[in-house]
Specification:
CATH class: Alpha Beta
CATH topology: Rossmann fold
Helix content: 40-55%
Order of helices and strands: EHHHEEEHEHEHEHHHHHHHEHEHH
Number of helices: 16
Number of strands: 9
Structural class: alpha/beta
Strand content: 5-15%
GO molecular function: epoxide hydrolase activity
Strand order of the largest sheet: 1-2-3-5-4-6-7-8-9
Shape: globular
Radius of gyration: 20 Å
Pfam families: EHN (PF06441)
Family: Belongs to the peptidase S33 family.
InterPro entries: AB_hydrolase_fold, Epox_hydrolase-like, Epoxide_hydro_N, Epoxide_hydrolase
Oligomer: single chain
Distance between the termini: 33 Å
Keywords: Aromatic hydrocarbons catabolism, Hydrolase
Length: 373
Amino acid sequence: MTPFKIKVPQSDLEDLRARLHHTRWPDEAAGEGWSMGADLDYMRELIDYWRTQYDWRIHEARLNALPQYKTAIEGTTLHFVHVKSENPNAVPLLLVHGWPDCFYRFHKMIPLLSDSFDLVIPSIPGFGFSDRRTKTPKQVAHLFAKLMTETLGYEGFTACGGDIGTGIVTMLSTHHSDVVKAILLTDAGYPTGREDTTEMSSADRQFMLDTQAWIQSEGAYLKLQATKPQTLAYSLNDSPVGLASWIVSMIRSGAGDETVDDAFGGRDELLTNIMIYWLTETAGSAARMYRLIVMANQADEDREPTIAATRKVPASIALFPYEIQFPASWAERSVHVRSYNKMPRGGHFAALEEPELLANELIRFIPNWWNHK
């Protein structure tokens, strides 16, 4: 383990400002708003704020106030935050982000959880300050298990994830049930087209239909990142406005009645997240993970586990209303559900948008099963 601080060269910030200043804006079909993707009026306002008001150095200093480290595991360098609680009975808790967010997803939850948990918040390989070595969820789970047990010395730990983090945490509960004691998920994965529907409940089938409808209307990012991520990488790595519009469009698709800023916890939070992708040049490698997930599914490497494989690891589901709604029976296809709660508000980025709600669920569920005999 080596202590790590973020130190962005001033020349990188000046280059970014120049690119923002020289943006070549597209036109927009009249009256379409968000229906064709990132809204032009919103993007102009966001980029103007980014260029003239947002201050990276403020947020860099806040990030550097967190205890960050790097370590190499099986040839892959992992970046992670490790916040040790002053509580001698604190439970080790691994928090796993998804896309298009990063380890920054959990920064609001740290003060809410640090009395009850030792917190470990890694950057998935290919994201942020970890190596740009994209891996499948199963491979990442293996690295994270070694991080928790061999690098940090925990005999056992718990985990929480959403989005891509759901797949990683599910793989931890399946393949590392000897050390993973309880998990919490904010979604339960999505149909792959390989499911056996013959004995599926009507609620499960409805969830599959709802997911298919969502992919048809909002899933352009999924299709492109799963098939031609390299084509996309040139634009995301070269244009900060292109990167921002790609991320903003995805966030807006799950925002419900909220604004993009609110759905991601605030405008500065949104831009800090985008900055981490921009400054580390990991937009392309992060997109490639979708390609690897599809290839792994086709090869049955990460095929959904059975309940028999996960029976030892109790799972809690915290389902927020702006997610695609699924029944407990869908989650039970891959994890051992012991708690299923529909939350009163919030969406896909609940850790940023509704940190208190998610933190309370973790505090309610995880310690009970950690101490369960």
